[in-house]
Amino acid sequence: MKTVRLLGVWVCLLLGLAIANLALRTPPPLPANAPADQFSAGRAMADVRAIGRKPHPIGSNEIVQVRDHLLGRINGLGLEVLVRPGEGVREAASWSPRSVAVGAVQNIVATLPGADRDAPAVLVMSHYDTVHNSPGAADDSAGVAAALEIARALKAGPTPARDVIFLFTDGEEPGLLGAEAFFGRDPLREHVGVVVNLEARGDAGRAAMFQTGPDSGDLIRLYAGAARQPTANSLAAAVYARMPNDTDFTHALRKGLPGLNFAFIDDQLAYHTPLATPEHLNQGSLQNLGDQALPAVRALAMGAALPARSPDLIYSDVLARGLVAYPVNVGWAILGLAGVLILFTGWRALRGKAVTFVEILRGIAGFLLLAAGAVLALHLAGRLIGIADQQRYYAMLGQFNLLLPGAGVLLIGVCLTVLILQARGAGGVWGRVWISLAGLAAGGACSLVGGFDQVGLGLGVAVVVLAWLGLGKRVGVFGAWLGALLVVLGLAVAVQALLPGGSVMLAWPLLAASLAAALVMAVGGTRDRRVAWLLTLAVCVVAVAVVAQLGAWGAWTFAGVGLEEPAVLAAFAILAAPALLPLAFDFAAYRWAPVFAGVAVAAGVGLLAYAGLGDGGPTRPQLAEASHLADLSTGTAWRVAPQPRLDPWSRVVLSDNDAKPVRQAYPPLYREPVWMAPTAVLPVERPVLSIDRSGDRLLVRAVPTAGAEVLTLRLRPSIALSQPRLNGRPIALPTQAGQWTSLSYHAPDPNGVTLSFTARRAGKVEVAVVEIRDGWPRGASAIPAKPAGLMGGGYSDKTIVLDRGALAWPAYVEAVPE
């Protein structure tokens, strides 16, 4: 028994995390000879290899080849097929209020006819374009290949009850242009009843259904009953709906269509980088995507009617074995039950004098100290290793397999340290002084990298206050346990009220931990050794289950947003703490417990430091970006690298003819400083730029050169302009006096782009035309090959052509008829 009490917390932690790791594994890909009605990643990979060989951005020669491949495959499947040309628009957003993107798109629509051609159709959507420097084997060749495999599997079975439309959108990467064109103006959108979108961010990990529309209760029930090994939770859907991130599914939601949005998001070093090759794609991720999407699409296609709109549910998968979904009222009932169990535990503990009210209050402060310390530890670690630095961000992606365990081990060490301090009393006043100094030092250290950090400093101050409130005297196990349960209960009630979908991650661990606490209080005083063993086993089972579920949730969340803010992982450690707390208090009595906790902290810091300083090597290359800028308005040429620090390859490229790179802004192209070095002026074709005024209309026209991938017009008027039109059609393009406004046209019309505005008052305008072309200009000195540890990103190895013009005009005076 003594051994169990000493090692129980470690055994439960390791076993729970091992189960979580098993739940996160992808299934083995089915071979190409799998049964015809099943999804086979082996079959789908043939399309991934054909589509994801090279980058194929909108308007490129490569995307024409991809389109030809898709049309051939669709015709081979015997589907009805149409190419739907159009123009998509990405309107100005809050994060870029005067920037608009437009593109000429070529959407592909393939239809598997159903028995009732008039019934609302199921739309399966994916996009077949990529960013400029990535072959996009995952984003979104995997989605396209999965859609084709779903079409094949459905075609091999009975005729569906309704049409199944497969929409392959163009121009997703520049701003969801193909989806905007389809849902905004294509008449076929009126035939759509429900949407299933297939996406990727990274090229590994389990696929997750991470977004639905409003009133999707019945749709979630259908997905829960149909999907194989589903991964989904309502917190992800609730949070994603409030984030600025968008996919093609966004435009379906704006039209009020229900649906399911799927993606896998692990190994994000391959997201929008040259690493995203068919060979690098995890085929198990593709299999998991199909295993969830195909049954859902089949159930929607074969049903007598599509799921009706019904109240949203709270839901989550249980270790990827199945999906539990229930109404919001049941969520309140779960919290009510947890509250009753906590009250019972508190009543019995107070009645039996196992705890006092003061101890419970100090237990609350101690648990809040644990939470503040855990968040501060990871926030500080993220600041010090430079995750906020975009260049370091990609380096961190190359070390993700060290970052996650490093962050997890550090959290274990910090949380155990706080619990040991609670159980032992923290050494009185001087102990609290040292803890306060450590908290202030950690909070202040957050400002050492990236400038003043008020979040880190605030956390440091919180540690000081909570240390004085919660430490100093020993707190018994029930004081700490009840304090932790009451804090989580309060948080869960707040989340249930404000964001019901998010309550699942608090309610389930809380109910399990409160049940264990009530059980211990009900029978914990027995002298029967068999009952004591069973009680200890029950507490351990609860701890393992909670750690496993929270570990799976936490690892998936950390893969998605952990590199923006590593402290997000602390939330899952905090929620696991109540279930582990009695075992941790048993461990705290062990003489060497502080040493074990200190070793865990040191090991976590070491792993994170190694990840922050380490080099991913040839298999995990870092991003580099260098391009040629020809400024035709000044007759100068530059080599440009936008990253904060020059890697050795970029430094060599920019030091052409012994030039000295300097960091400077170059408006209107680069408003923030970039690395620039002069280079030889080489002949490049000039795009046509004209600025004129006709009556009260200002006309800005640009004609691209052959091969231009992107044509951008930037203008800065001295007065606000009104009634903007693009090629004669109204467009939402806000302008402001003295500020730059930008319109980027992807796959521009060879005949040119014309912007016009009403300008009645006197004024002037500065205009810049920027053109992106593939490759270095002819005659450029030899560019060294990138070493194995680097890969090109963004607009690397492209030519940027800049020209400028200006026009001033008097006030418009309307002619008076004689």
Tell me the layout of helices and strands.
Elements: H1 2-24, H2 41-51, H3 61-77, E1 80-90, E2 99-112, E3 121-127, H4 141-155, E4 164-169, H5 177-185, E5 192-200, E6 204-212, H6 217-226, H7 234-240, H8 249-254, E7 259-266, H9 283-302, E8 313-317, E9 323-327, H10 328-351, H11 357-384, H12 390-397, H13 400-424, H14 428-445, H15 454-470, H16 477-498, H17 504-523, H18 529-561, H19 568-588, H20 593-613, E10 622-624, E11 627-631, E12 636-641, H21 648-654, E13 662-666, E14 670-678, E15 688-694, E16 697-703, E17 710-717, E18 722-726, E19 729-730, E20 741-746, E21 753-758, E22 763-774, E23 790-792, E24 798-809
Parallel strand pairs: 2-20, 3-4, 3-5, 5-7, 10-23, 11-24
Antiparallel strand pairs: 1-2, 2-4, 6-7, 8-9, 11-12, 12-14, 13-14, 15-16, 16-21, 17-20, 17-22, 18-19, 18-21, 22-24
Helix pairs in contact: 1-18, 1-19, 2-4, 2-9, 4-9, 10-16, 10-17, 11-13, 11-14, 11-15, 11-16, 11-19, 13-19, 13-20, 14-15, 16-17, 16-19, 17-18, 17-19, 18-19
